[in-house]
């Protein structure tokens, strides 16, 4: 059985004043409306970040009793992982209509409670926490420092990631930085440093937000309201909790998750028309470009030069503005999928990529700890745009 995404939506974004469950409900009802379905059709539910029993609490709040749930907590990559689980559940007959959702009010609540709680008995607590790292930026900064040293790259290449993200955000009215004006490389380099070599403009936003996607069988999807977007392949990798045991900081598990997704889909990097990639920090995106096969290890700095990732560049990348300039509500992986689907359906207005057939969404969780890649494609029987 082939499975498709039939509905997508964002919740309110930015500074909302809403509760987590309120944002979740917004995203779910909007995504179901996009698909032409109702809450009564939902018999599968996946979510994280609500509470200890996230899917249970959300199902009760919605008044549904799903036949299948998943609340695996793997950080920002969890939502790409849920796509794989939802496809498998639908294929196995465990459910017919699965919703994947997320919501966070971290900016309104002035809280970052999702990050940095290390159990006292873990190796990280014993061997890393005593040195006072800021979670998670100190760890990403360590990877960035290693990258610049190993490959002789300059901070300019990291800055280019932020500059490109801002240019896309200027084309997206929903972006948190839509009205903030363009960035320059010098702006990024001169911003206050947080953890060398990363400054404030190398870091993702802190916002409220969320959204949802709806999946069902492709046969059923073709009778629904929206153009179906087919799940072509997926792959994941879980590598580390702390950083002390990582053999090679410059080879995260995204190399493996991408290879598995490409193999399942029978595709390669050259087939990807638009890429939506987790950018918690500029180094996350730069290293992911290499892991996803868009360039070889060590070539990322040269690859992003000359505006390759900016609007009009050779690789449409983080076309919403990404976590750096669009929205980042604690975990960003769900919104990568929303943008990928909208691009394939031709719904992105001024930022729309010309006639894309294949989109990639890639999530990263923890401190380069969990990695999940999803390849999506237009339904060959549908009409684009």
From TrEMBL:
Pfam family, one: Thiolase_C_1
Top-rank taxon, per record: Bacteria
InterPro entries: Thiolase, Thiolase-like, Thiolase_C_2
Thiolase C-terminal domain span: 235-378
Molecular-function GO term, any one: acyltransferase activity, transferring groups other than amino-acyl groups
Coiled coil segments of this chain: none
NCBIfam families: PRK06158.1
Protein name: Acetyl-CoA acetyltransferase
Organism: Yinghuangia soli
């Amino acid at each position: 059985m082939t499975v498709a995404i039939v509905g997508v939506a964002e919740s309110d974004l930015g500074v909302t004043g809403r509760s987590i469950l309120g944002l979740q409900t917004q995203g779910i009802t909007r995504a179901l409306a996009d698909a032409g379905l109702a809450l009564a059709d939902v018999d599968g539910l996946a979510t994280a970040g609500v509470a200890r029993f996230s899917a249970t609490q959300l199902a009760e709040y919605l008044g549904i009793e799903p036949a299948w749930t998943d609340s695996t907590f793997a950080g920002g990559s969890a939502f790409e992982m849920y796509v794989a689980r939802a496809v498998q559940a639908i294929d196995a007959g465990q459910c017919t209509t699965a919703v994947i959702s997320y919501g966070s009010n971290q900016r309104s609540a002035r809280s970052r409670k999702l990050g940095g709680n290390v159990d006292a008995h873990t190796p990280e607590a014993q061997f890393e926490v005593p040195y006072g790292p800021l979670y998670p930026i100190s760890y990403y900064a360590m990877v960035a420092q290693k990258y610049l040293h190993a490959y002789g790259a300059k901070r300019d290449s990291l800055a280019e990631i932020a500059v490109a993200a801002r240019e896309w955000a200027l084309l997206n009215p929903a972006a948190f930085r839509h009205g903030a004006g363009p960035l320059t490389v010098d702006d990024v380099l001169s911003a206050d440093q947080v953890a060398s070599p990363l400054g404030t403009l190398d870091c993702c936003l802190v916002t409220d937000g969320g959204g949802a996607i709806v999946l069902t069988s492709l046969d059923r999807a073709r009778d629904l309201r929206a153009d179906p977007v087919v799940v072509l392949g997926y792959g994941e990798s879980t590598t580390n909790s702390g950083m002390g045991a990582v053999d090679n900081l410059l080879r995260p598990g995204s190399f493996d998750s991408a290879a598995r997704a490409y193999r399942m889909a029978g595709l390669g990097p050259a087939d990807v028309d638009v890429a939506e990639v987790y950018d918690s920090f500029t180094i996350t995106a730069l290293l992911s470009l290499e892991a996803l096969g868009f360039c070889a290890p060590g070539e990322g700095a040269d690859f992003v030069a000359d505006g390759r990732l900016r609007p009009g560049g050779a690789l449409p990348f983080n076309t919403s503005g990404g976590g750096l300039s669009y929205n980042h509500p604690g975990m960003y992986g769900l919104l990568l999928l929303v943008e990928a689907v909208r691009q394939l359906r031709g719904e992105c207005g001024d930022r729309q990529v010309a006639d894309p057939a294949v989109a990639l969404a890639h999530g990263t969780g923890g401190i380069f700890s969990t990695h999940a890649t999803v390849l999506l494609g237009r339904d060959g029987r549908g009409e684009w745009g």
